[in-house]
Design brief:
Strand content: 15-25%
CATH topology of the largest domain: Rossmann fold
Number of domains: 2
Number of helices: 11
Helix content: 40-55%
Mean pLDDT: 93
Largest sheet: 6 strands, mixed
């Protein structure tokens, strides 16, 4: 069986420890804040992430950039020349052009390496939803699955990967065009918290709203109760925008009500966090549908 490498983007919000345990390669995305550009490097994220969210809370704005085709071409080529096949699992194409850049690089390289296998999978996922899909791919690889079988699993199951999340400050979603200025203002005044998910097309979609922070966190757990498949066998991922207490609250509720096998929690990185803002909590699991 030919060996293969699994590659993803830093938008998967995997910690350095998780990356090392999975044995995957993570391509860094970039973000700009206060006129300075930064690379989203997971190994450095633990030292910088609290500063990033503190800056957002103080009023700084952050913008993001996609990975270009040349970066993917050089990365994929380096593995192909080592005799390894390539499986790329990308950030939702509905939220970024990064995946299309990787697809273009893969198509170009297939012409030059006809004996190698190169797959680029649009995860239609974001944050640790993308990370959870990568986690499943890495588990299959470690268990001896061929690259084609891993790709088949991803394509068959990615629309079962559920994303449910809430934000504490609607103004970040307003800047990204996800909610109107009126909704953001009323939500802030009235304490309304939106419940959102990522749909089958990989888009960020508002699905409801509740009043109060605790109610919004409870709603995430209710969504999991409605659709989670075989919770006793599942490892559930939770990401957060510098609000670990709220993430742990959701984790405790998921364990209490669904008796899942394991829960892993990590920060929302600066690329996703630039758009979701501080106080975001997101829950990811495999369900009957998104």
């Amino acid at each position: 069986m030919q060996s293969y490498v699994i590659i993803t983007d830093s938008t998967a919000d995997l910690s350095q420890k998780m990356i090392e345990e999975m044995g995957v390669d993570v391509k860094r995305m970039t973000y700009s804040m206060d006129g300075e550009e930064f690379s989203d490097i997971p190994v450095e994220r633990d030292d910088k992430i609290k500063q990033f969210y503190a800056a957002l809370r103080s009023g700084s704005r952050s913008s993001t950039s996609q990975i270009n085709m040349d970066v993917f071409t050089e990365s994929f080529k380096s593995y192909l020349e080592q005799g390894k096949d390539v499986l790329y699992i990308g950030f939702s194409s509905a939220l970024s052009g990064t995946c299309s850049q990787a697809v273009a690089a893969a198509n170009k390289l297939k012409l030059h390496y006809p004996d190698r296998k190169i797959f680029a999978v649009d995860s239609l996922c974001a944050s640790l939803g993308q990370g959870l899909l990568v986690y499943y791919a890495a588990q299959l690889q470690k268990n001896g699955a061929a690259i084609e079988d891993t790709v088949s699993f991803l394509e068959k199951n990615k629309l079962h990967l559920c994303h449910w999340f809430t934000v504490d400050d609607l103004n970040h979603l307003k800047r990204g065009g996800r909610v109107s200025a009126t909704v953001a203002l009323l939500g802030t005044v009235l304490g309304i918290k939106p419940i959102l998910h990522v749909d089958d097309e990989g888009r960020l979609i508002p699905m409801g709203k509740v009043r109060g922070r605790r109610a919004s966190l409870d709603e995430l757990v209710k969504k999991a109760e409605q659709t989670m498949m075989h919770p006793e066998d599942q490892t559930v991922f939770i990401s957060h925008g510098d609000c670990i207490d709220d993430a742990e609250y959701v984790a405790d509720k998921v364990k209490e009500k669904l008796h899942v096998k394991d829960v892993k929690i990590n920060y929302i990185g600066p690329v996703i966090g630039s758009h979701s803002g501080p106080g975001t909590v997101a829950l990811f699991f495999m369900g009957t549908k998104r």
